[in-house]
Amino acid sequence: MIEAFFELHGLPFGRSVPVIELLRTDGWDELHARMLHTAGIRGFGVFTGDTGTGKTTALRRFAEGLDSNRYRVLYVCDSFLTPRNFYWEVLHQLGCTPRFYRGDAKRQFHKALKEVNEDRKCPVVVVDEAHLLSREMLEEIRFLLNTGMDSGSALALLLAGQSELKETLKLQVNQAIAGRVDMRFHLEAMDKQQTASYVAQHMKAVKAPREIFTSTALSMIHEYAAGIARKVNKVASTCLMTAAVRKESLVDDHLVREVLESEFEI
To answer: What is the pLDDT of residue 169?
Structure first.
């Protein structure tokens, strides 16, 4: 309905929009650069941001942009990640059948890393939702970073998670792993101008034939969403649907207010 009414080539705020078409704010560009640097030096990076700021989207951009002839990306996202599950996941991605016992799987993983390195590629392990990692898993990551006995890292490791991850690594019990971090970055929410540009870029990505959101509508969306990309997506999508149902060609501040009051309980 939205596409037909507004003559769009797809849904502007869905996950189907190619990463290359998305807005690149200063924050996202810096995050991207630091991720690339971490991969390039085979380092250990910790990247944080509040929920909905776009960390996973940034990871998609990062992974898709890496040269497949030089890097092998292994992506892990599990809210209840255990060492055994970790090795099971990465070994499957490497085309191996994981051994049952954790110690055997760990040795199997180290062997697989060596084979990837011998193929002149750098393994890049990305752990998303890392703020949920248990103490046991964090300790396993510390051991993982010791691969190579400091003579040269066998992999690059990136942890991405919500702001709590920063606080977790500040704890005395985690100082050993915190001291190994080579690169850190915290992704902030968008400011008012960036939110407007973000919406405009998403509309451009689906070839909107004209401007649909008024400046006052964008200001109200930003105020509600506080610059959080995920919230902007939800409000903007609902506004487009409401406008299409009503056959209104513009999304203005009056429509946004109605949507917020009826759909988002402000």
So the answer is: 95
Cα gap 208→6, rounded to integer Å: 7
Sheet containing strand 122-128, edge to edge, reads: 71-77, 122-128, 156-161, 44-49, 183-187
pLDDT of residue 147: 65
Residue 128 corresponds to which amino acid?
D
Q: Which residues of the chain have pLDDT under 50?
A: 149
| Cβ-proximal residues to 172 (8 Å cutoff; 6+ apart), any chain | none
Q: What is the pLDDT of residue 151?
A: 56
Question: What is the DSSP pairing of strand 122-128 with strand 183-187?
Answer: unpaired
Q: How far is CA 87 from CA 52, 108, 117, 172, 245, in A?
A: 28, 9, 18, 27, 49
**What is the C-alpha separation between 190 and 192, in angstroms, rounded?**
7
Reported as half-sphere exposure (CB side, CA atoms, 13 A), residue 257 has a value of 4
Phi, psi torsion values for 15, nearest 5 degrees: -75, -5
Q: What angle do CA 266, 50, 45 make, to 5 degrees?
A: 170
* Residue among 125, 23, 18, 95 nearest 64 (CA): 18
Q: pLDDT of 216-246, one tens digit each?
A: 999 999 999 999 999 999 999 999 999 999 9
Within 13 Å and on the Cβ side, how many CA atoms surround 138?
A: 23
Fill in the DSSP letter of residue 68.
T
Cα–Cα distances in angstroms (integers) from residue 5 to residues 73, 88, 212, 246, 257, in the given order: 40, 47, 12, 10, 21
Burial class (CB in 10 A: 0-12, 13-18, 19+), 206: buried
For position 24, what pLDDT does the model report? 79
